[in-house]
Amino acid sequence: MTPVGLFELVLALLAAALALSALASRTGLPPAAALVVGGMALALVPGLPDFHLDPDLILVLFLPPLLMESAYFTVWRDLRAEMVPVLALAIGAVAFTTACVGIAAHLVVPGLPLAACFTLGAIVSPPDAVAAKAVLQRLKLPRRLVTILEGESLVNDASGLVLYRFSVAAAMTGSFSAPEALGQFAWLAGGGIAIGLAGGFMIVQLLRRVHDADLAVALSLIFSWAIYIGAERLGASGVLAVVAAGILFGLLQHTALEARVRLRADAVWGIVVYGLEALVFVLIGLALRGVLERQTAALLATAVPLMLVSIAVVVVSRLLWVFGFAESMRAVLKRFRRDRTPSSLLPSLMVGWAGMRGVVTLAVALALPDAFPGRDQLLLAAFAVILFTVLVQGSTFGPLIRWLGIDGFADPEGTQMNEAAARVRVNQATLAFVETLSEAGEPLHPRLIEEYRLRTEATTRLRDDPLASTERRQAHFSAALAATAAGRTELNRLHREGHIHESVLSVIEQEFDLEELRLRRLGKLAGGAPTH
Question: What average pLDDT does this structure show over 491-502?
Fold first, then answer.
């Protein structure tokens, strides 16, 4: 295939991925499931050019920005509070699943070396951050549950990849060293985190000095790949390096970035992540084509039982670990115990069922050496696990939550003030500052003082009696939105008739956009203006 043909194929795949994502949004299907099925359908289209995926390219192209975006929005305070169950899943559950799958695979296919069977376990053991985010982002779950699931998927690749590397080495050379494995894991994890924190601090200091929004956003994108590649070149975990940098970046962005940089970054990163997530799941489906073409009846006779056993053991071993094999899971059960909870085991059932595999499992499976024992059988088993966890677990996760009633669970009331109380405090502080800008008791900015006094009074009323005067608030925000729409109409007319330049239109249009977002947000808070 020529370079131009390859580019055209990538564009066609991206267009197909976006169309499938839009279809999933309209039909209510989980996006990841629809995209994987669509990729499988494309793989069976006759005449489609061969599309061979380089596993190293998959990891370096897709993982850094997707992990950076997930880590950036991770609340470090929440993650730190749930670190025990997160590490129990990210390390303990991965090791337990690897052992269970390895033993079961060797029993089903005795001809496969034990090291090769454990390699399969290492491939399918870590749930995937991209797949988890694709499923969880549209569901209403308790904050702690989301923190545990997303936190696990962000940090479990280090343990999975260490097990994978040593299993492959043992299968190819016939030797294994536990001390060497532990030492490598320590460097992968510790070195990756250290490199990520150092790189994250450097990029934050750089962005403090960059006032061009486009340049700042471009630097943030490049940084996600740079930190991953740098850590991998040093033999550390690029995944953990990106996660550590993303969490640090998210912590410091409130003071390090200007407001317009944050707005621009949210828009650009949203588009990039949306496109990459859509494309990666289509590629997972497409990758199945090459594997199927190499299968024979004899191989399928052993591959099918291996696929079924791998799926069953992956699902059951995770549920067993969550429910009873680790002390840390008991802490999870205690943390999630609520007066409204019909059974204290329901949140753990959700943790156990939310084990979607995705891009990392695909990439490491494809990276197996050509001479690896039972390579095609292991590839089929890995694909089967990906398809089952994404299609079945991902598709049933939302209905299961609604059926069990877990979507009604509320997070416990803490010492932090809610949004209404915070608005009162912010407006009080703003009003107090404006009132200090006076000379000899005469206000220098009477209209500004009056504006913030009205805001303080309004938010105080809303905090004290949120159900009062709903109709009046609805009328207020509806009128404000209508006024904004009238101004936008006049602005467009002036531009259409040539009275203002494009640059003037852009500046004022952005102000209208921000004002509309603010009004819709306040209207939603007050139970007034529509949000769409």
Answer: 80
The Cα 228–Cα 231 span in angstroms is 5
H-helix or E-strand containing 262?
helix 259-293
Helix or strand or coil: residue 442? strand
CA 16/CA 35 separation, integer angstroms = 9
The most confident of the ranges 36-40, 156-160, 377-381, 442-446 is 377-381
Number of H helices, E strands in the chain: 25, 2
Among 102, 90, 158, which Cα is nearest to 326's? 90
CB 76 within 8 A of CB 253: no
On whether the CB atoms of residues 101 and 313 are closer than 8 A, the answer is: yes
Quote the pLDDT of residue 325. Answer: 58
What is the maximum alpha-carbon separation in the chain?
Answer: 95
Residue 46 phi, psi (nearest 5) = -70, 145
- Structural fold of domain 3-408: Na+/H+ antiporter like fold (1.20.1530)
Give the residues across from 442 on adjacent strands. 439
CA distances from 451 to 23, 321, 479 (A): 45, 57, 18
Residue 204 makes CB contacts below 8 A (sequence gap 6+) with 248, 249, 252, 253, 256
Least confident of 332-336, 395-399, 473-477: 332-336
Tokens of 217: 């956003």
Q: Given CA atoms 234, 237, 238, 243 in this order, what sign does their dihedral have? A: negative
Reduce the DSSP state of residue 2 to 3 states and report it.
coil
Tell me the pLDDT band of 338, cut-offs 50, 70 and 90: very low
Q: Is the pLDDT of residue 416 over 60?
A: no
The span from the CA of 519 to the CA of 326, in Å, is: 48
Residues 6+ apart with CB under 8 A from 87: 155, 328
Q: What is the pLDDT of residue 194?
A: 94
Specify whether the CB–CB gap between 132 and 354 falls below 8 A: yes
- Chain mean position to CA 282: 17
What percent of the chain stands above pLDDT 90? Answer: 11
Token pair belonging to 75 = 């609340």
Contact yes or no for 165/184 (Cβ under 8 A)? yes
Does residue 360 register a pLDDT over 60?
yes
* 450 CB neighbour count, 10 Å cutoff: 13
Element (H, E) at 112: none
CA dist., res. 384 & res. 381, Å (int): 5
Query: Residue for token digits 């894991």?
Result: 185
**Residue 439: its H or E element:** strand 438-439
* Assessment of whether the complete model's pTM goes beyond 0.70: yes
Amino acid at 244: A
| CA atoms 363, 369, 374, 376: torsion sign | positive
pLDDT computed for residue 340 by the predictor:
44
Residue type, 163: L
Let me know: does 119 contact 368? Beta carbons within 8 Å: yes
Identity of the amino acid at 175: S
